[in-house]
Amino acid sequence: MAAHSAQIGVRRVRRRTPKAVRRARTLTVLFLLTVAAAVLLCPRRVQTQAHEPPAGVHHTVAPGDTLWDIAVTYGGNRDAREVVYEIQRLNGLPSAEIYPGQVLFVPTESR
Fold first, then answer.
1. Signal peptide location in the record (predicted)?
2. For 90-102, what is each residue's pLDDT tens digit?
């Protein structure tokens, strides 16, 4: 029986000192304050103002029309590339391909 009891070991439980507990609490609080500050100070994408839809016209595509031609016609002094992109975006066009009879919303205000 003495041989059996010699194999049983006693494991010591390590307790944290009050200094270590205070340090852990301080670091936790600092981390939480940093996260809270980052959340509060980061710019938000929430728009506070209601945006009015852009001014524009509805253009019915004629045979031979291209987005470039339409952009030059209605774009005024704006860069035609920007107007083409905006026409595509406003009308949900995945490409510059358009068809006769198609009705497109074309912005006319300058930005």
1. none
2. 999 999 999 999 9
Domain hosting 84: range is: 56-107
CA atoms within 13 A on the CB side of 53: 8
Q: Model-level pTM?
A: 0.51
Give the ranges where the chain is alpha helix by DSSP (H): 2-7, 18-41, 67-74, 80-91
- Which residues of the chain fall below pLDDT 50? 111
The total of structural domains in the chain comes to 2
Q: Each residue of 7-16: pLDDT tens digit?
A: 677 777 777 7
* CB-count exposure of residue 87 (10 Å: 0-12, 13-18, 19+): buried
Residue 46: inside a domain: no
Pairing assessment for the beta strands 103-107 and 56-60 based on DSSP bridges:
antiparallel
Spell out a b/e string for 4-35, using b for 16 or more CB atoms within 10 Å of the CB, else e: eeeeeeeeeeeeeeeeeeeeeeeeeeeeeeee
